[in-house]
Amino acid sequence: MATARSSNLKRTEWNRKCREKLSAHIQSRLGILVDPSQVRLKPNLDDPYTWERMEEKEHLFLKNISDHSNKSLMELYEGVGVSFAAVGKDSIRELQAGAVQSKYLCSPKTEVSFTTKINKLQEREARLTCELNKWRNQAAIELDMRCQAEGNVNHLEVVIQEARNDNQKLEQHIQEWKLVAEQSQSNVFKYRDGNYSTGTSPVIEIPALALVLSMILVLPMILVLACELALACISSQTSSGNSSC
User: Fold this and answer.
1) Which of 19, 77, 184, 204 could be cross-linked to 36 through a Cys-Cys bond (beta carbons 3.0 to 4.6 Å apart)?
2) pLDDT digits over 182-203, tens only?
């Protein structure tokens, strides 16, 4: 019993608040004084105002204010001037006939259709949505390019690491070949010294082995340097693309 009484009191309070807000809205928008108790969602033929509303708020105007639930009354209170608005009946007829002045306004002014405002807002929303989709597509393209660049960088890092490993192995082989070369040169010197002592012609040293060893040592270093340079170029391009965003 107490709960029902509390609900009735709350409904009465929301009924009063809605009527006062609707009355104030009619006066501020149209310059028409309407007592809060006389405000109607379904105006009579002799009432100088009517309501323009969004389609999704049409259900609020199928009943009288006193017949609404607390939820509907709160929805009605919050929608005043947002999802529906008061317009003068004569203003609508005069605007349709090409007139821009309503006799119900406190001062002469052009009556702006609430529906027109809604249409403009919807057009603006469509433009913003289109622009947002455009930027999303651009961001997706740039993200794909960045992922490809990062993939190339990772691949080059693997190539560089493999080249370094091969270089280390080659350096080990070079050291082994240097030992062999040194041993061979020592044998040549011994053989030459022996030939001198016996009076035979000395053996002429051929520097080809030293040249080959130098090339084997230098070429892996050149390969590593080239890979690192390519990696630096890709990283630079990736950084430039991010900063341009």
Assistant:
1) 19
2) 777 777 667 666 655 555 544 4
Helix (H, G, I), strand (E, B) or coil at 161: helix
Kind and range of the H or E run holding 88? strand 84-88
Distance CA 211, CA 194 (A): 27
Instruction: Calculate the alpha carbon distances from 57 to 50, 149, 201, 214, 244 in Å.
Output: 14, 52, 117, 88, 46
Q: Residue 170 to residues 49, 68, 163, 175, 219: CA-CA distances in angstroms?
A: 96, 91, 10, 8, 10
pLDDT tens profile 113-122? 667 777 788 8
CB 50 within 8 A of CB 114: no
Nearest to 106 by CA among 206, 44, 27, 34: 27
45 Cβ contact partners less than 8 Å away, ≥ 6 residues apart: none
Q: Find how far residue 231's CA is from the centre of its chain.
A: 29
The string of pLDDT tens digits covering residues 92-147 is: 555 444 444 433 333 333 345 667 777 788 888 888 999 899 899 999 998 988 89
For 174-221, the DSSP string reads HHHHHHHHHHHHHHHHHHHHHHHHHTPPPPPP-THHHHHHHHHHHHHH
Q: H or E segment at 52?
A: strand 49-53
Distance CA 237, CA 227 (A): 16
* Whether the predicted pLDDT of 173 surpasses 80: no
